[in-house]
């Protein structure tokens, strides 16, 4: 067994999320966004420290040029993780869209931002677009089911499904 754990591949991640409910996909994306924000803040702090070493005239020239190798390495490692996490968010978005729903990004102020453009895209209504996590109202669900079954709004279509 390896002393260092390795992240799962993008392919295995995509396979693993196929059966998750939409709200879990959004929760995972939010978790990844939060992690990215922390890593970016950490990188900024590390870079400021490196810059302070490089500008510290009380240190020998060789030390200023070198900076802090451990901090530089940490920044590079964080960048690799950030890119991997962005890829995972993209896979989560593709999974939601594969299911026929639009991707909604929840901003830090709690508002829903849709990356799919106007609210009429892919036959979605403005009400559907406002519902984060792929949730539909009872009326929206009924309307979509009727459309899929080929029934008209009054239920008079005789070609629909009969039980």
UniProtKB/TrEMBL annotation:
Q: In the UniProt record, does the keyword Coiled coil occur? A: yes
Give coiled-coil spans as residue ranges.
22-49
Q: Where is the composition biased (Polar residues)?
A: 106-125
Which residue stretches belong to region Disordered? 51-76, 100-163
Provide this UniProt record's keywords sorted from A to Z. Answer: Coiled coil
One GO molecular function term of this record is: protein-macromolecule adaptor activity
Gene Ontology BP terms: proteasome regulatory particle assembly
Compositionally biased region (Acidic residues): 152-163
Where is this chain compositionally biased, Basic and acidic residues type? 61-72, 126-151
Any idea what this protein is called? Uncharacterized protein
């Amino acid at each position: 067994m390896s002393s260092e754990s390795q992240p799962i591949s993008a392919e295995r991640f995509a396979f693993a999320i196929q059966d998750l409910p939409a709200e879990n996909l959004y929760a995972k994306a939010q978790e990844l966004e939060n992690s990215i924000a922390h890593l970016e803040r950490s990188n900024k702090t590390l870079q400021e420290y490196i810059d302070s070493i490089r500008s510290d005239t009380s240190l020998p020239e060789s030390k200023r040029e070198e900076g802090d190798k451990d901090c530089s390495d940490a920044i590079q490692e964080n960048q690799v993780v950030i890119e991997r996490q962005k890829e995972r968010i993209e896979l989560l978005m593709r999974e939601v869209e594969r299911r026929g729903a639009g991707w909604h990004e929840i901003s830090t102020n709690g508002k829903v931002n849709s990356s799919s453009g106007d609210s009429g895209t892919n036959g979605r209504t403005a009400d559907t677009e406002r519902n984060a996590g792929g949730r539909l109202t009872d009326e929206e669900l009924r309307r979509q089911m009727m459309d899929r079954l080929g029934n008209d709004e009054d239920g008079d279509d005789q070609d629909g499904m009969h039980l």
